[in-house]
Amino acid sequence: MYFCCSPNNMTRSMVMYQFIEDERVRNVTMRKRKAxxxxxxxxxxxxxxxxxxxxxxxxxxxxxxxxxxxSEAHRVIQKFNKSPMWSSNALQDHSAYLQKQIAKMKKxxxxxxxxxxxxxxxxxxxxxxxxxxxNNQEVLDGVxxxxxxxxxxxxxxxxxxQEKAKKKMVFRTFF
Length: 175
Prior knowledge:
Distance between the termini: 82 Å
Order of helices and strands: EEHEEHHH
Mean pLDDT: 81
Largest sheet: 2 strands, antiparallel
Radius of gyration: 33 Å
Helix content: 55-70%
């Protein structure tokens, strides 16, 4: 999408990006936009005091357009390749990224399932008909697992309270 101002009312209107069929118009657009892009790169380099280069390949077999010069672009690219960010540990391919995202989503899904099971377990405490509509064994196993983990947590709290009570009793017998 591209926003541009109309000459009549200076409001932005939306123009859709699409391939320019007319070769003459496409070449004129390419030349103008390439010049504009190189100008912006120069402004960025001067205003922000950064190393920058631009390498642009057109669709035909012509040599690439390089800004500011091929030797300067080569120096900037070598600097980028030597940076620690470019090391194989810092970068990951698309597959590794997707695998990390999938693992993250699976973890989030497991948390949500656990939360839903606890919610269903509480609902069962107050409504005896809550599980009558459920005919999925996985859901029933999940509720049973949630109940078991809650029972374990309660047992642990009881044991902890009993140990604290014993310590208080021993402390009181000495004084």
